[in-house]
Amino acid sequence: MSEPTAESDHAESQYVYCLVTAESDATLDVEGVEGATVSVVSTDGVGAVTSPAPAAVETDSELAVKRLLVAHQRVVDAAMDAYGAPLPVQATTAIEGDGAAVREWLAARADDVRAGLDDLAGHREYHVTVEWADEAAAAAAHEADDELDALEATVEAASPGEAYLREKQYESALADAVADREATLAAETREYVASVARSVVDRATTDGVSFAAGDADAVTRLAALTALEDEDALGEALDGVADREGVTVKFTGPWAPYSFAPELDDGGADA
Amino acid sequence: MKPTKDATAVVDLVDVLLADGAVLAADVVITVADVPLVGVQARVLLAGMTRLSEEGIFEAWDEEIRNRADRSTGAADD
Fold this sequence. Notes:
The structure holds 2 protein chains of 2 kinds.
Chain A: H1 6-11, E1 13-21, E2 26-31, E3 37-43, E4 46-52, H2 63-83, E5 87-88, E6 94-96, H3 99-107, H4 110-120, E7 123-132, H5 134-144, H6 146-157, H7 160-194, E8 199-202, E9 220-227, H8 231-242, E10 247-255
Antiparallel strand pairs in A: 1-4, 1-5, 1-6, 2-3, 3-4, 7-9, 7-10, 8-9
Chain B: H1 7-19, E1 31-32, E2 35-36, H2 39-46, H3 57-71
Antiparallel strand pairs in B: 1-2
């Protein structure tokens, strides 16, 4: 029998879903990426939720990537049920090597991981997206700004030669006023959420790529870190936003605290 | 209002899965034809999609989380 080659050892890697508070190794009753068995590799009171990583993801179709994302989320959800709020790891991350390599990686960062988990314990992430129908927003703008009514009247009264210019003036003023009302609604929404949540961040995409089709016109998109027991209070606070004419509030969760996970990239620098 | 966690909500979550969460620098990432598939590349790869739910896989997941919600309140925290 020959020893496995360095190359074959090296080729192995472990997909990492999230990090949890765990005293011992375990397996999770959930299907991982590509149907893999999901294990919790623990050390020093913390655990990495992992499964053997696929060597490559087939991307001839987008389906494989979507499957990976769904599997990722499914495992994070199962880990959250079993261990409480996890530190989610960015999807598509793997650690080179076998389970021992994961344990070594985790041991080098155990203090930071534990601190992060303790900080997030008992909390969940919720997403809030607010949309405002154009007509309702325009009506609110008119209500707040009498000059708009006057400008609109000048369009109707204008001679044919003047009408185009007047209309442009009115449209520009209306757009400004609507933007103003939307900014106020966004600020008020944030205030409502912040009155309950421990922390609130904007969910603006950083690179301009978003899958949230239809959200392009959203007045605001927020992520809120909230204690589990405050979920009802957060919903009640949002009722105060949703009650307004033409306003739609999308309220989703509870999610793992993706938007509030700490940086963990320095732990192994000197290891 | 009550928060929802259905298939539509998961589509909304995809951005977050790829953009957020702890980033483990210097570790390997899944590769696609020898090209590392990190979050941003995967996002670009998927950017053409307008309806992630078309394949039905999000619905399957939706069903699963509903079943799990029936079994557990999800409150394993201290």
